[in-house]
Amino acid sequence: MIFYKAGKNIFDQQRVVGKPQRRVDGPLKVTGTATYAYEQQPTQKLVYGYIVGAEIASGQITGIDERKAKHSEGVIDIITYQNVPEVGTGAFLSAKALGGPHIQHYHQAVAIVVASSFEQARAAASSLVIHYKREAGQYSLQSRAASAPLSKSGSFRPDPVSSVGNFVSAFQQAAVKVDEVYTTPDQSHAMMEPHATVAYWEKDMLHCWTGVQQLNWGVRDLAFALGVPKEKIRMRAPFIGGSFGVKGTVMSDTVLAALAARKTGLAVKVTLQRPLVANNTAHRPATIQHVQLGANRDGKLTAIGHRSVSGNIPGGRPEAAVLSTRYLYHADNRATELKLAELNLPEGSAMRAPGEAPGQMALEIAMDELAEKLKIDPVELRIINDTRFSPEHPNKTFSQRNLARCLERGAEAFGWHHRSPTPGQQKAGRWLKGMGVSSAIRGAPVLPSAARLTLQSDGRLNVKTDMTDIGTGTYTILAQTAADMFGLTPADIDVQLGDSAFPESPGSGGQWGAASSTAGVYAACVALQEKLAEKVGASLHDLSFSDGLLIVNGTSVSLQNLASQGEISADAKMEYSEGRKEFEHQTFGAHFVEVEVNEITFEVRVKRMLAVCDAGRIINPKAAENQVLGGMVMGLGAALMEELVVDERLGFFVNHDLAGYEIPVHADIPQQSVIFIDDVDEFAGPLKAKGVGELGLTGVAPAIANAIYNATGIRVRDYPLTLDKLMTKARAI
Amino acid sequence: MRPFNFITAESREHALKLVADNKNAKFIGGGTNLLDLMKLEIEAPSLLIDISRTDLGQIEKVDDGRIAIGASVTNSALAANMDVRRDYPVLSRALLAGASGQLRNKATTGGNLLQRTRCQYFYDTAQACNKRLPGSGCSAKGGFSRQLAVLDIDDSCIASFPSDMAVALRVLDAEIELVSLSGTRMVPIGDFYSGTSMQPHIDTVLKHDELITRIILPRPLGGSHFYEKVRDRASYAFAIVSAAMVFQPDGSARVAFGGLAPKPWRVEFAEKLLTTDIDEYVRLAFSGARATHENQFKIPLAKQILKTLISKHREL
């Protein structure tokens, strides 16, 4: 099925889709019976693998002494580059899942020790002696930034340069200017469930359970890594305990579990130990961003310049921090630029709202600085510079854009008028109070997605797709979709996800999951309805469905009866017409934050947060609210505490555990609320819905930074805004 | 983690005998730090001696009005004890500022005193660390040091000591009862931690064959008690700087700091300045501070905390 635009359709009734729904998988989650990768118990003999990470950042393995480890109790095998074929790289990442003799980054996997128990494997791993020759590497983004070249275009690599009008002269002539450098740190996904895999081979067929978000990428990249055909891999990920992008494709746990299973002929279970996750896998790369804004006295932007440099290993992608600047505000003269420095730190890759989150962390502070210079309210300034047309492609409009509505609605709901335009004016005891705002924007991509709908002989409907549920609520929204199409309730639908044997979806990533996978299920529902129409000798247009009945020309037949002679199944795939490119597809939002800052210690406590989101129809307001709330928590972490600290001498992230890499705890989380703008996007898909999972994060951190400025009058442009930075600046004032 | 034996001692004497017989034995209380260290093989005892059944779980009033806290008393129980809350609120507040509810339910008083540093290089066995592996060097010096010590350090180690509880015990002048087969000794908490010694792998004066049995609090000292802890998040984080402070009605005050040194930091001789000349107190109490670029904010922060506590006390 090819999609261009949705007309009036069944989902407009807002009967099931559009209504808050409890998660259909909720009971499994809360009773501990949702089976995650590490909990799978295959019937094969099961052994355990323990991954050993490289102890240097750059260099060579010069020798491996495995005598002691090999004779350690319970050890079955030790796998290194010396005894398996060279591991290939996949299409998404450039680091190899198994290093040696060349080491690409700290904690790159160099061995997997296989033993009868996890404890035995761990004990033996520590007696494995690996000799290294350290080589010089580049570990400092700051020192490589000046010489960094432009990044290259390609898949998930936007064009490095964009230019409209004459930015340089417009900026020069602007009446009011902001010209500042902002930095964002390397960040860790820090998801609850570390990477884990169970793998075994049946002859030449590899079976694995893991936590990969996009099974089609996972299978593709595992096939590259192992040098086997894709068809010889079956990958399952029915439940995933958080991922935020770092499980987009297979990592060392899967590749090494598969290698170990092949070499030993046994089923191998592997999880990455927490202290290995930050350096072994991937992270969001740090950025140094230069933002230049020029405006007329009336607040109209005349020039927007945004340049960003990030680092990555050779072959890695840039953090596309300027991407959303290309769509957010109008200005006749604009220039953006992405540079990429080669570093020998672990590989940087996608983390929730890649590019967009750190980009807005810079741009949206700059807008606050501009508002202050102009003496215009920051909400008003953003509305003044709103646009109907794509800023770099003025012949294009947005499929839907309610940025100004988000800002207005949020300002009213939050009590924005209580904010003092002059910083440092409001105080409660020792606590300085302030409010901040930020716009939010995040792309709304969709990708082809397939599904299989089966009417079972018991009258229940079954949905199968290799889509995943990473905690987002996919099981529920797919049940909602099928329920509306057949006049049923979500409880009447069985949804099966996360199996590469099922029809291919684009998986969960890039905020495309909800729109894409519901569209695929819609297509499969239509295909099944066509089969049923044929069976009753009617045209699809004459059919309707209600309460488990198919109704045609006033007579009805139960779904169960239709399948009494055997289940009826239909596969279909939703694809998108070229016409989609006529529009820009984005989601929008506004974040409002109130903070208190201790005037003596500069501790920051966020008191209230509000997100207003514009993402088309909200399929399940309950699950979508969860997503946005989670994004707000993550944004608070980004603003106030999260930073992978680079040891620039030794080339690694030092705070590589959850004691050292602090993320918010409950006590940090204030009153949060979410408002969804009531609108639909007819160009988004049959459900007229877009994703919100990443939108909920973008704009949160700068809103907090702006609130801190409003409270204190101290402007910190270097995330995270920790108390030492505030204190140092305050003492300098 | 190395394979190890585990014996639940039936009595204190049994525990002491077991530890005297095995140079690689260790006592285990709640295990909230030791087990992590064992998983990383920073500690690799061949024998763990569980002391949970050696009758050290009581908080008792001693005849002269002092309080004796058994080494196995959990942090939660100690923080909730009515005598402690009434007479030593600084201790209760310090305990509740530490760790999380789950950890406090498991962590013991004796174990809390013996926590190892939270220096990240100590926990990464691929990095040089004199505290973990004597003579290997110190990776933290010149590296990530924001959380680390600025006082009582030298080139061999800049680790800070993470306990909140011990900071309160230091301001209260608690004593620690150490028992071995050869007898009992009382060590004032001010003498318990080694601090700079060029032997950073030795944290305390505790000998291998000694067991911490009780922590003795002096008779109630009255006054107003404060524990102020500054950290990057609101809970479940180690102190960047903390302060335990007691003000007396006669105008005197005492204070101990956490997060600044390899031990709770208290400079008694300067305390008479606390309520008269803060700048001079700071100059004396923090003289010899050796900060890095990353942690040079700690001394000014400590001073700010002092000022806060003094003004909080005035407002009472």
Automatic annotation (TrEMBL), chain A:
<dbReference type="InterPro" id="IPR008274">
    <property type="entry name" value="AldOxase/xan_DH_MoCoBD1"/>
</dbReference>
<dbReference type="InterPro" id="IPR037165">
    <property type="entry name" value="AldOxase/xan_DH_Mopterin-bd_sf"/>
</dbReference>
<dbReference type="GO" id="GO:0016491">
    <property type="term" value="F:oxidoreductase activity"/>
</dbReference>
<dbReference type="InterPro" id="IPR000674">
    <property type="entry name" value="Ald_Oxase/Xan_DH_a/b"/>
</dbReference>
<feature type="domain" description="Aldehyde oxidase/xanthine dehydrogenase a/b hammerhead">
    <location>
        <begin position="31"/>
        <end position="136"/>
    </location>
</feature>
<dbReference type="GO" id="GO:0005506">
    <property type="term" value="F:iron ion binding"/>
</dbReference>
<keyword id="KW-0500">Molybdenum</keyword>
<dbReference type="InterPro" id="IPR046867">
    <property type="entry name" value="AldOxase/xan_DH_MoCoBD2"/>
</dbReference>
<keyword id="KW-0560">Oxidoreductase</keyword>
<dbReference type="InterPro" id="IPR016208">
    <property type="entry name" value="Ald_Oxase/xanthine_DH-like"/>
</dbReference>
<comment type="similarity">
    <text>Belongs to the xanthine dehydrogenase family.</text>
</comment>
<dbReference type="Pfam" id="PF20256">
    <property type="entry name" value="MoCoBD_2"/>
</dbReference>
<dbReference type="Pfam" id="PF02738">
    <property type="entry name" value="MoCoBD_1"/>
</dbReference>
<protein>
    <submittedName>
        <fullName>Xanthine dehydrogenase family protein molybdopterin-binding subunit</fullName>
    </submittedName>
</protein>
<dbReference type="Pfam" id="PF01315">
    <property type="entry name" value="Ald_Xan_dh_C"/>
</dbReference>
<dbReference type="InterPro" id="IPR036856">
    <property type="entry name" value="Ald_Oxase/Xan_DH_a/b_sf"/>
</dbReference>
Automatic annotation (TrEMBL), chain B:
<keyword id="KW-0274">FAD</keyword>
<dbReference type="GO" id="GO:0016491">
    <property type="term" value="F:oxidoreductase activity"/>
</dbReference>
<feature type="domain" description="FAD-binding PCMH-type">
    <location>
        <begin position="1"/>
        <end position="222"/>
    </location>
</feature>
<dbReference type="InterPro" id="IPR005107">
    <property type="entry name" value="CO_DH_flav_C"/>
</dbReference>
<dbReference type="Pfam" id="PF00941">
    <property type="entry name" value="FAD_binding_5"/>
</dbReference>
<dbReference type="InterPro" id="IPR036683">
    <property type="entry name" value="CO_DH_flav_C_dom_sf"/>
</dbReference>
<protein>
    <submittedName>
        <fullName>Xanthine dehydrogenase family protein subunit M</fullName>
    </submittedName>
</protein>
<keyword id="KW-0285">Flavoprotein</keyword>
<dbReference type="InterPro" id="IPR051312">
    <property type="entry name" value="Diverse_Substr_Oxidored"/>
</dbReference>
<dbReference type="InterPro" id="IPR016166">
    <property type="entry name" value="FAD-bd_PCMH"/>
</dbReference>
<dbReference type="InterPro" id="IPR036318">
    <property type="entry name" value="FAD-bd_PCMH-like_sf"/>
</dbReference>
<dbReference type="InterPro" id="IPR016169">
    <property type="entry name" value="FAD-bd_PCMH_sub2"/>
</dbReference>
<dbReference type="InterPro" id="IPR002346">
    <property type="entry name" value="Mopterin_DH_FAD-bd"/>
</dbReference>
<dbReference type="GO" id="GO:0071949">
    <property type="term" value="F:FAD binding"/>
</dbReference>
<dbReference type="InterPro" id="IPR016167">
    <property type="entry name" value="FAD-bd_PCMH_sub1"/>
</dbReference>
